[in-house]
Design goal:
By secondary structure, the chain is α/β, with parallel strands linked by helices. The protein folds into two domains: 243 residues, Metallo-dependent phosphatases (Purple Acid Phosphatase, chain A, domain 2); 171 residues, no CATH class. Helices cover 34% and strands 21% of the residues. The protein has 13 helices and 15 strands. α2 packs parallel to α3, α7 crosses α13 and α9 packs across α10. The N and C termini lie far apart (67 Å). The relative contact order is 0.10.
Length: 421
Amino acid sequence: MRFLHAADVHLDSPMLGLARYGDAAPIDQIRGGTRRAFERLVDLALAEEVSFVVVAGDLYDGERDDFQTAIFLQRQLHRLSEAGVPVVLAWGNHDAANQITKRLSLPPKVHLLPAEEAGTVVLEEAAAACHGRSYPRRDVLDDLSATYPAPIGGLLDVGVLHTALDGRPGHDRYAPTSIEALARRGYGYWALGHVHTAERHELDGAQIVFPGNLCGRHIGESGAKGACLVSYEGETVTSVVHRDLAPLRWERVEPDLSRASSLDQVLADTTQALVRLQESIGSDELVCARVVLRLEASLAGSFLADDQRCEAQLRVDASGSGGRVFLERVDVRPLTRPDSEELDEAMSEVRAAFAHLGSAEGAAELAEIVENVLGPLRRRFGKDALDQLRMLGVTTLDTGGLADLLGEAEALLAAELAKGR
């Protein structure tokens, strides 16, 4: 027997930052990605004739109250219901913040796990029992799994939980618990959600799985996305296979520019890397690519001095006749550094600004510095620093995101210093 495990659908996520590309971005195609991915999930469930489907939280995207989203979801759930495929849902932190979820009537065979306390949905024809709890509010800081029912036995016991486990970068530490605590519960499978990167653990016979989110929404959610097809016999899971379902994916591309001695050669080699990427994807798939160019400082300076033309040319060449590659952004990273003392002096105010990003006061300081002091960075970050952070794919101010932004700032300043400015 088989079931599908999905999580973090984030239907109709606004995909922040696309507006900056104007007509160059396939905005409708990107923003429609979450819907198409959910349609593919339903298609897969029907094609594989699965016994049931589990969605471990965050069908919706925060406080966006659009009944068109609810209508779409209802139609897809009805497809499963009419085919006799049960669905078990648990609301996550985004669903708890969404007003639609409080007014939504679910189709037959769609079971919502309770929010007041942990509950169980027994699926007799599937020989399975799903235990879990929906979020009663957005911020759940208790270990919900500690109150889950004991395994029934004779069935496949599936725990459904929206959690960050013991903490994951970029994710709020909701419903904290541990792999060891989950394994001790005695279930055969834990269907987890909340963490957007696929992750699988096995301990004491229990499979503990994050499928990742169903469709990437920005460069921070790169790679193939989808759901897990789980096979089982009796109380035992026999296989867990990740199935790619997203109609688009986000990728970082770093072309080999070791032989490039001119700006034209940089553009030609980068275009070839993007052509190879286009040849590697399916005919109905879109790739949003962020290109990283590692160049000698002089070439980096030449690119940045004419970056609007260069990026526009690469964007046209990347899309080709099929339009299946969208150049999301180009990052330039000089391989050589100018005088360290000179660069450190130029970077001092940048580092000081980023050191305060965790507070409202710090964000205001950053905006002022970007506007008045760091001229070369103004076009990259703009006046509204926090909006620009989201546009650059940084959804949380974690260490990795800040390091990436500092690298961008240092690259720009190093290139300027290399040109003698």
